[in-house]
Amino acid sequence: MIASECTPFAKTGGLGDMVAGLSKALENAGHDVRICIPLYASVDRARWNLKFEKNACVHMGGGEEHWVGVHAGALDGGVKVWFVEYQRFFGRRGIYDEDNREYDDNAFRFGLLSKAAMQICKDNGWIPDVIHVHDWPSAVTAALLKTWDRILSPLSHTASVLTIHNIGYQGVYHAGVMNYLGIGWEHFTTDKFEDHGRINLLKGGIHFADAITTVSPTHAKEVLTPAGGKGLAPYLNNRGADFCGILNGCDYEHWNPATDPLIPHRYTARDLTGKTICKTALQGRLGLEVDARPPVFGIVSRFAPQKGFSLLMDALPRVLNTMIVQVAVLGNGNHQTEEFFNWLSRNYPGRVGVHIGFNVELSHLIEAGSDFFLMPSRYEPCGLNQMYSLKYGTLPIVRATGGLDDTVQNYDETTGSGTGFKFWADTSAALYNTVGWANATWHDRPRHIAKLRQQAMAQDFSWKKSAARYVEVYQRAIGKHRN
Ligand code: ADP
Ligand code: GLC
Are residues 421 and 397 in contact, defined by beta-carbon separation less than 8 angstroms? Predict the structure, then answer.
């Protein structure tokens, strides 16, 4: 696995959770997996007990050589992780950005990661059958395996699989990056890397990877349409059966209310007393009135337009003006969104609690202590938070898109079946009405809420099944690479 994130070492969103969860599941199924990520300044070397292994000389285009340090660690005591140390690129505060400004050399930073990972395999004589790359940061490896490393390389038999986690980020940069990556200009064509005169790293990966996946079956259909593909639909359509959607799993070793060490009291579907204690703790922590009666609506999110904040900004003040509810928010990113939530908490004291920042412990407390979880995403390739919510008996309120549609079953008022509340229209009115529906159910049909909770907590999205689907894809990719 070559990736820009891997939980718990470095994470901004679900990509890190997915890389870690899938790798562990593959290893449990008997495969030999290694992960390669950058050694960011934020990675706590002492906490994770990282050990320096050796230096590696990475050959970039134009004869440029970079010497990197290679450190090793282990994921939950299992899968081996290689960390690439290169201070000039990774010795910074952020992963992709700082103070909301993307680093302007990201193509170089992750280009170096991609080539370094391949070099580390060669130097260790550890030759994988498949290299699995994630999103644009490591997509170039798929191209390198078909060009630079196609013949007379220890990796010439290594196939590639590209997973698209988020087609909204394609890695589009100045064309000159081609030289640094060492990809010949004959590949700077519309069907491969070229995109309106610039280099599009994800697009190149889509052309060269032996197989391509995205993170839910419904999203796999969406990205084949002009609106969903964000410019890349024709190229994905070209790949036909090489492209498919596999639902992400959940790492229940870390996301399980019965065992979670990060919440004040553990609980199970049979005994939900602990959940009430978590609600009280959450209310106290975020300055909400401590009261079991109003439902708490939780949000944990990157503040990105993808997540539907324009709908929330319109709907939430109306929700708070017309319903007796509380809102608990954790997130950071877009400045305007941060300002909005700060404003909301000032205007509705005791009813809106906000923490701007990235905080793993609080993310678990919000999952455990809330009654409902809000995810009105405009698009959502998979989404992990709604799956965590289900496990914690926190009923998700989602827009029926991508992985949200695949994982949440809509409440049926006549029977009490379902696991959450869904809406379809991309409008704040639809969101407002659905929050109203959930709130009315909370007050008027508490038996149904209890039933929905049981059904939600019984859902099983563990990685085993999805990891087996990835193995099938790896096998197809290997077959394809050989031909
Ligand atoms: P995405 O990958 O698009 O951000 P997902 O729902 O797949 O969305 O995954 C989000 C992951 O990031 C979850 O594990 C969630 O708990 C975590 N997360 C998001 N924002 C924060 C935050 N501010 N603090 C802590 N964890 C966060
Ligand atoms: C992306 C998507 C999210 C998905 C995650 C892990 O960041 O936005 O929907 O769950 O990757 O695959």
Answer: yes
Q: Strand (E) positions, 294-380?
A: 296-303, 326-333, 352-356, 372-375
Q: Is 107 in the pocket of ligand 1 (CB under 6 A)?
A: no
Instruction: Return the half-sphere exposure (C-beta side, CA atoms, 13 A cut-off) of residue 354.
Output: 18
CB contact burial 332-368 (16+ within 10 A = b; e otherwise): bbbeebbebbeebbeebeebbbbbbebeeebbbbbbb
Read off the pTM: 0.97
- Residue 12 pLDDT exceeds 90: yes
Domains: count for the chain:
2
Phi/psi for 387 (5° steps) reads -75, -40
Per the CB < 8 A criterion, the answer to whether 123 and 56 are in contact is yes
Whole-number Å distance, alpha carbon 164 to ligand 2 midpoint, is 9
- pLDDT tens string 306-333: 999 999 999 999 999 999 999 999 999 9
- Taking the CA of 218 as reference, the closest ligand is 2
| 44-64 per-position pLDDT tens digit | 999 999 999 999 999 999 999
What percentage of residues in the chain have a pLDDT greater than 90? 99
Taking the C-alpha atoms of residue 264 and residue 280, their distance in angstroms, rounded to an integer, is 10
Mutate to test the pocket of ligand 1, among 358, 365, 404 (most ligand atoms within 8 A of CB): 358
How many A from CA of 16 to the centre of ligand 2?
9
Residues 441, 473: one domain? no
**Which alpha helices (H) appear in 75-232, and where do they start and end?**
87-90, 106-124, 135-146, 177-181, 201-208, 217-222, 226-229
Write the residue with the smallest CA distance to atom 11 of ligand 2: 165
Distance (Å) from CA 166 to ligand 2 centroid? 6
Pair 224, 326 in one domain: no
Decide if pLDDT at 408 tops 80.
Answer: yes
Residue 211: give its domain's CATH number.
Answer: 3.40.50.2000
Residue 109, amino acid: R
| 453-482: pLDDT as tens digits | 999 999 999 999 999 999 999 999 999 998
Q: Which atom of ligand 2 is nearest to the CA of 403?
A: 9
Quick check: is 162 in a domain?
A: yes
Q: How far is CA 124 from CA 27, 54, 64, in A?
A: 19, 10, 22
Mean pLDDT value across the chain: 97
Residue 329 structural domain? 273-457
435 alpha carbon – ligand 1 mean position (Å): 22
